[in-house]
Write a structure and sequence with these properties.
The protein is α/β, with parallel strands linked by helices and 424 residues long. It is built from seven helices and 28 strands. The chain is 16% helix and 26% strand. The protein is elongated.
Length: 424
């Protein structure tokens, strides 16, 4: 069985010009991976509360009990609004609630006003000729047309303008489907406010009479510490920002007494983080098209998964999801230059896509077929090592110069365990 050992400089592959008929003089293989593994840094399991055992309403109510309302809501979140637009809505709200000092009375009045004065609509012909309803708070305020998202966005701005802690949440109105509403803090309680349906009540009753509203995400940061910031997203207590700048980062196991369930940052992680240790607690890295580590961690080269994790495993720095006795490719670190895969019987369309840093892919023996467009938008991919018996579709690697490097080639043979390409 043909073996290839490549001496690879940091910038480029010296194998870019090779072909199936060339033989190579064996070099002494390097023993270090792309980033040296310095220690085993998995977080220790603790006695934190497992939120996954709770219903969504109970889970959200528990998380909110430990939130500082002022700190958590002292931003406009994802609201798309200018300072002038905000000032106009504030002036209107000031006049609407003039003379009222009780925050709960202000909430009830504003919630009722939004419900009565905004018409539920998916489309509306605007002066510029556009016909899709704009659910940003100011267009809703001016045109009085919106779906539930627009109702919640406008009520949030009205509350914020009065100094009342509030935020937008998205989830499910059971059994109808997707819905948006608000949580508002008055007195010493969080209240549910659903301006689409003109209702509000204390959040501790959510899992009773309000169980038809199932929260999936909050538009606020719940907690922050020296290591991370945390939110509630995709039904999970999630790490949304990494503040720790060490080269090797250990993902925390818990915060505020709750087990952390998800690692899906919403902004760039510190650039010097090369390795990441993930404990048995993490059950999600985000949904398939929303993997924060893929988008916001361009220098991350290696991910270690605690063997006790029930959802994922790692092999040579790559994350796979467990599926019974099988594994499915889940996440390739964006800073990884050489991708050495576990045996995957069929490499389907879009198995590896949008990885501009990848320069080499090694397919393991046991792979049987690589389908059309299995590899896409990997413009620096120069070589794929493919076992002799693997069926490769004509467009498996897309288009030269676009999906792969213009000098890309397929090299046949078993090249597992060859030296890795080092990151700079």
């Amino acid at each position: 069985m043909k073996k290839l050992y490549a001496f690879l400089p940091a910038i480029a592959l010296v194998l870019a010009g090779c072909n199936d008929n060339l033989e190579f003089e064996a070099q002494q293989p390097e023993t270090t991976p792309q980033t040296s593994i310095l220690y085993s840094g998995f977080p220790e399991a603790d006695n934190s509360i497992d939120l996954s055992n709770m219903g969504l309403c109970e889970k959200s109510a528990n998380l909110l009990r430990y939130v500082d309302p002022i700190t958590a809501t002292d931003t406009l979140g994802r609201a798309n609004i200018t300072a002038a637009q905000y000032a106009e809505i504030k002036a209107f709200t000031d006049e609407l609630v003039a003379g009222i000092t009780d925050h709960h009375a202000i909430l009830d009045l504003c919630c009722t006003w939004v419900h009565k004065n905004v018409e539920y609509a998916y489309s509306h012909i605007y002066p510029d000729g556009s016909g899709v309803v704009n659910n940003d708070p100011y267009p809703v305020f001016k045109t009085r047309y919106a779906i539930c998202q627009g109702y919640a966005n406008l009520l949030f701005i009205m509350m914020h303008s009065q100094g009342i802690p509030a935020f937008v949440t998205n989830g499910i109105l059971n059994p109808l489907g997707g819905h948006a509403w608000n949580y508002v803090y008055t007195g010493k309680n969080w209240y549910v406010a659903d301006p689409t349906n003109s209702t509000s009540l204390a959040s501790y009753r959510l899992f009773g009479s309000y169980a038809h509203l199932l929260p999936y995400s909050f538009d606020i940061v719940l907690y922050s510490d020296a290591h991370c910031s945390y939110d509630y997203r995709e039904r999970s207590l999630n790490i949304c920002r990494i503040n720790d700048g060490n080269d090797i980062f250990t993902v925390p196991y818990s915060v505020q007494g709750f087990k952390i369930e998800s690692l899906n940052p919403a902004e760039p992680i510190p650039a010097n983080i090369k390795q990441m240790y993930v404990g048995s607690n993490i059950e999600s890295f985000g949904e398939e098209n929303n993997l924060g580590l893929k988008k916001y961690a361009p220098n991350l080269e290696y991910i270690h998964i605690d063997p006790a994790n029930k959802k994922f495993i790692s092999n040579l720095g790559i994350v796979y999801s467990k599926n019974g006795a099988n594994q499915a490719l889940h996440l390739i670190p964006s800073g990884m230059k050489t991708v050495e895969l576990m045996p995957i019987e069929v490499i389907y369309k879009n198995t590896i896509y949008d990885h501009p840093g990848v320069e080499a892919i090694i397919f393991a023996p046991g792979t049987k077929r690589i389908d059309d467009w299995a590899i896409e938008n990997c413009p620096n991919l120069k070589v794929a090592y493919v076992p002799e018996d693997v069926e490769v579709a004509s467009n498996a690697f897309g288009t030269l110069g676009r999906d792969v490097h213009r000098d890309f080639q397929i090299v046949r043979g078993d090249y597992t365990n060859i030296p890795q390409i080092k990151a700079d």
